[in-house]
Amino acid sequence: MKVNTKTIAANWKMHHGPDEARDFLEKLLPNLSTRKKPRILLFPPAISLQTVSAGIEECAEIELGIQNIHWEVEGAFTGEHSAAMAVSVGVRFVLIGHSERRHLFRESDSEVKDKVSTAIAAGLNPVVCVGETREERVQGSTESVIKRQLDSVLAEISVQAPKDMLLAYEPVWAIGTGMLPEAHEIEEAHSLIRNRMREKIGQEASLSTQILYGGSVNANNSEDLLKLKNVDGLLIGGASLDPLSFSKIIESAVSV
Known about the structure:
Layout: E1 7-11, H1 18-32, E2 39-43, H2 49-55, E3 62-66, H3 83-88, E4 93-96, H4 99-104, H5 109-122, E5 125-130, H6 134-138, H7 142-157, E6 166-169, H8 183-201, H9 203-208, E7 210-214, H10 222-226, E8 233-236, H11 243-255
Parallel strand pairs: 1-2, 1-8, 2-3, 3-4, 4-5, 5-6, 6-7, 7-8
């Protein structure tokens, strides 16, 4: 059964330390208090997790996510965080396979798969990102790239997908560039993801798993994006850093 409530996810990347995160919430939350809200996910940097966790304690519609975990349970991995550590501070979601992790940090499909497995075992809900580079799109490889990235993960979860697992399509060439794909390109990619899920893990799981769009989303285009077929929500970067801009995007999800 397809989920009707839209999901709006904010990936703050390496922005908003604890003080900035606290200030953000103080400005955002009053704007949400009297409104019907979509499901809202916040992915602050790890150093701000506890601040955000405390700040959203009384707002049931906002849930906490971490931007990255290691696939091992513990060990000598300087600078990394385990899934259990994330859970201990109230995290419920984890971004996995974000394009910046894949391309800047050279994360492989195998590592993405291992992180998904670790997240599920710890009780975290993965938000798995897939998408092609500009070069891959020009070469006509979009479909093969997305299928390759998806298949590794779907083989790992089989029919045991967590109830709240999400997928996110993020064309690498659109992230932070202001370049937005054509509406039909987004719909084609989301339909491809939905159909591939159905082939690999069945109709019910494919329909109950939300697919978010990410890439140059802002308050001016969010409503149009949310109206597209198979777009169940948005994964937002830069436009989520400003509480006013982010609240407008949240409001657009209510009106769709």
